[in-house]
Design goal:
The chain is α/β, with parallel strands linked by helices. The protein is built from 7 helices and 17 strands. The chain has 3 domains: about 200 residues, 3-Layer(aba) Sandwich (Rossmann fold), CATH 3.40.50.620; about 70 residues, SH3 type barrels (Roll); about 80 residues, Elongation Factor Tu (Ef-tu), domain 3. The protein is globular and about 70 Å long.
Length: about 375
């Protein structure tokens, strides 16, 4: 009997090609389309209806059954509520990390097992490897994708052994260009569909307008490090460290660089207690650079933290790994120190640790 794999099919090209690859590899494949957002599902920003049509069309071409399942209640309770709590507290969360841990590899996995699945699969760019010998025999590792430009291990760093042991990532060894080529070659109706962006399951939309519906906010002063008031912010929740666009003080010219041009403004700090937003001029202003960070809510793929010492880390997704020194702190926390200062280290984002191509886990940046 072929092993049964339930794959999350979003209507996008990555999960569609993944389903086809699994079928080619001899698995019994069942597609599962997840609906996880209902608040404004008829809006221009939430494309659930079209995504379902695309997923069902692909299932027909590939030759697999597909079922739609509604996880909107779980998403709102486990992911979106935490997302709002973090923004209200002035931090900048990463909903994709929480969404993977709580929905795609928990609610989805549980549902797949009820369908008699042996394994689940998704269209993420990452790899799973089972350690074959010695003390690590039987332990599962999360590895970066072969296509470094598409690697998504950063978003998967909270997965545990039970989840990884049941997971396949068919695209882990394949470059994105090859995925598009396969989609065209086998005649998938969504071969040219653009990749989705925006908040996990909610889509790409005017962000400030969206948060306005759910958060209370209070305007306050926008100051320079010297204490000069240069504007008014609309609410600390609506800004993130390192932000350049949308601050609203582009015309201020209090500082010029060596070429005589006005340096751009960046969000540098949030003073929650005094409801003050601090902004600086220049990409490399000292307030934007951090030699170290502290993180909490640590999650380790092996089930325990790595040994203290030299590792590498990402403090944001679109970033090359940087060398760091790792130190465990208390229960569920850690500290990282860097040989080169890191730009705009942001509370609420994830600091993810690596040893070569192996993703070890990570935590939520506190400061």
């Amino acid at each position: 009997m072929a092993k049964r794999v339930v794959i999350g099919m979003s209507g996008g090209v990555d999960s569609s090609v993944s389903a086809w690859l699994l079928k080619q590899q001899g698995y019994e494949v069942i597609g599962l389309f997840m609906k996880n957002w209902e608040d404004d599902d008829d809006s221009e920003y939430c494309s659930t209806r079209q995504d379902w049509i695309d997923a069902a069309s692909v299932a027909d071409v590939v030759g697999v059954d597909i079922e739609a399942v509604n996880f909107a209640a779980e998403y709102k309770e486990r992911v979106f509520a935490e997302f709002l709590r973090e923004y209200q507290a002035g931090r900048t969360p990463n909903p994709d990390v929480l969404c993977n841990a709580e929905i795609k590899f928990k609610a989805f996995l549980d549902h797949a097992m009820k369908l008699g699945a042996d394994l689940i699969a998704t269209g993420h760019y990452a790899r799973v490897r089972e350690a074959g010998a010695g003390a690590d025999a039987g332990r599962f590792e999360l590895l970066k994708a072969v296509d470094a430009s598409k690697d998504q291990s950063y978003f998967l760093h909270r997965l545990n052994q039970a989840q990884l042991s049941k997971t396949l990532f068919p695209l882990g060894e394949i470059p994105k260009t090859e995925v598009r080529r396969i989609a065209e070659e086998i005649g998938l109706p969504n071969a040219a569909k653009k990749d989705s962006t925006g908040i996990c399951f909610i889509g790409e939309r005017p962000f400030r307008e969206f948060l306005n519906r759910y958060l209370s906010f209070k305007p306050g002063p926008m100051k320079t490090p010297e204490g000069d008031v240069v504007g008014e912010h609309v609410g600390l929740s609506f800004y993130t460290l390192g932000q350049r666009k949308g601050i609203g003080i582009g015309g201020m010219k209090s500082h010029r660089n060596a070429e005589g041009d006005s340096d751009p403004w960046y969000v540098a700090r949030k003073d929650i207690e005094n409801n003050t937003l601090y902004v600086v001029q220049g990409h490399d202003h000292p307030w934007l650079l951090s030699p170290a960070l502290e993180a909490g809510q640590a999650s380790w793929i092996a089930g325990a933290p790595p040994a203290e010492g030299a590792l590498s880390a990402k403090t944001r997704y679109r970033q090359a790994d940087v060398p760091c020194e790792f130190h465990a702190v208390g229960t569920g926390g850690f500290a990282l120190s860097f040989s080169t200062e890191q730009w705009a280290v942001t509370p609420g984002q994830s600091a993810v640790l690596y040893q070569g191509e192996v993703c070890l886990g990570g935590g939520i940046i506190n400061r």
